[in-house]
């Protein structure tokens, strides 16, 4: 599978003598050293790939460089060094005109505060991206209506933006991005302004849409729980650098350093972890041979932790974890689950 989107040693420096600053960063200088000469190293040596249909989350504290990174991915900002490839095409090498065409047709952005046009109806707002693409009116209204329905806004087409709650307005923003058929969505803190329940609802909706639409999504957030829920892969940024890239589980169970570990200490692990993270992999073939009647319950490596507890409670022996070929890949003894919950409770 070839990568949909690829960032290769990306740097963005704001200020004087940018090239020279990149040289210093390559030699190991950090942000602080450059700041002394009034130069900001917003993004330092960022490399990653995003596969088709993946949600790639970029997480980090305020000022860590997330938005700057995102703006380089669609060419709104030109990297000081490095390359961005989208479907194998080097965005950094495109003319301004070609870049605009890629941005209008293939990439959609959803921001934190989605500014709707107040004097346009909801459906006209959702159709805006198509209007920019030059799609004829009847078609764009039909496609926007469809996108609104996907986002749970059926029946609101003719309303005005100020008749909608903040969460609903944000859905219009999402519908606008979906209506264009762009298959790369760049979402910068798109749900951060929403209150917690609506935010969770939007996350669920995005995940549900994603099972059907399979867009390639780069999602920026400073919220760890959101990152863990949404990300197929998660990159953690600190002071301009990506300090770890991995699955939510990698980040939680195998943090690259103390910074990542401290960042993740408040997460409810039992909601993220799966059997693969807690199982004992050191198994002998006969251990699955529990002596039960056939049909005894088993788990797979991606069985969620909570379900694993439920299965374990119904069995009088460890839970066998089987792969797709029904081969035993691990076992989870009851005490493993209990000690894990104990650690969680101690952490809280
Ligand atoms: N146009 C600019 N000129 C100068 N410095 C900039 C510019 N844009 C961003 N920066 C600086 O680059 C650094 C990274 O900013 P960026 O907006 O990418 O962070 P962020 O992770 O998105 O933060 P937040 O979570 O607050 O949105 C910051 O120190 C910021 O001040
Ligand atoms: Mg930002």
From TrEMBL:
Biological process annotations from GO: glycine betaine transport; response to osmotic stress
InterPro entries (alphabetical): AAA+_ATPase, ABC_osmolyte_uptake_ATP-bind, ABC_transporter-like_ATP-bd, ABC_transporter-like_CS, Gly-betaine_transp_ATP-bd, P-loop_NTPase
Domain ABC transporter as annotated: residue spans: 5-264
Pfam family, one: ABC_tran
Keywords: ATP-binding, CBS domain, Hydrolase, Nucleotide-binding, Transport
GO molecular function, one term: ATP binding
Enzyme class: hydrolase
Documented EC number(s): 3.6.3.32
UniProt xrefs under CDD domains: ABC_Pro_Gly_Betaine
SUPFAM superfamilies in UniProt: P-loop containing nucleoside triphosphate hydrolases (SSF52540)
Family: Belongs to the ABC transporter superfamily.
PANTHER family for this protein: GLYCINE BETAINE/PROLINE BETAINE TRANSPORT SYSTEM ATP-BINDING PROTEIN PROV (PTHR43869), GLYCINE BETAINE_PROLINE BETAINE TRANSPORT SYSTEM ATP-BINDING PROTEIN PROV (PTHR43869:SF1)
Protein name (database record): Glycine betaine transport ATP-binding protein OpuAA
């Amino acid at each position: 599978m070839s990568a949909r989107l690829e960032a290769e040693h990306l740097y963005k420096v704001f200020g004087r003598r940018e090239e020279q600053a990149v040289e210093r960063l390559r030699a190991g200088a950090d942000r602080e050293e450059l700041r002394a000469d009034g130069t900001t190293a917003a993004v330092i040596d960022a490399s990653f790939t995003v596969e088709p249909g993946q949600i790639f989350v970029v997480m980090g504290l305020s000022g860590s460089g997330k938005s700057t990174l995102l703006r380089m991915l669609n060419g709104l900002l030109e990297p000081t060094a490095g390359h961005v490839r989208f479907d194998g095409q080097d965005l950094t090498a495109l003319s301004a005109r070609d870049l605009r065409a890629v941005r209008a047709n293939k990439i959609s952005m959803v921001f934190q505060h989605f500014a709707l046009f107040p004097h346009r109806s909801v459906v006209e707002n959702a159709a805006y991206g198509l209007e920019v693409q030059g799609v004829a009116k009847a078609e764009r209204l039909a496609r926007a209506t469809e996108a609104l329905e996907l986002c749970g806004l059926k029946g609101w087409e003719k309303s005005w933006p100020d008749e909608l709650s903040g969460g609903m307005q944000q859905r219009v923003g999402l519908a606008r991005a979906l209506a264009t058929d762009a298959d790369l969505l760049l979402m910068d803190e798109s749900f951060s302004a929403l209150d917690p329940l609506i935010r969770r609802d939007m996350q669920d909706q995005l995940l549900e849409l994603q099972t059907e639409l399979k867009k390639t999504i780069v999602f920026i957030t400073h919220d760890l729980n959101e990152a863990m829920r949404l990300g197929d892969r998660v990159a953690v940024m600190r002071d301009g650098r990506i300090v770890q890239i991995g699955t939510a589980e990698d980040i939680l169970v195998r943090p690259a350093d103390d910074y990542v570990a401290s960042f993740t200490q408040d997460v409810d692990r039992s909601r993220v972890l799966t059997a693969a993270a807690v199982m004992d992999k050191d198994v002998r073939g006969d251990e699955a041979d529990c002596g039960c009647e056939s049909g005894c319950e088993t788990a797979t490596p991606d069985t969620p932790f909570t379900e694993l507890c439920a299965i374990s409670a119904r069995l009088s022996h460890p839970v066998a974890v089987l792969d797709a070929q029904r081969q035993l890949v691990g076992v989870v003894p009851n005490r493993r689950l209990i000690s894990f919950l104990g650690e969680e409770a101690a952490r809280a």
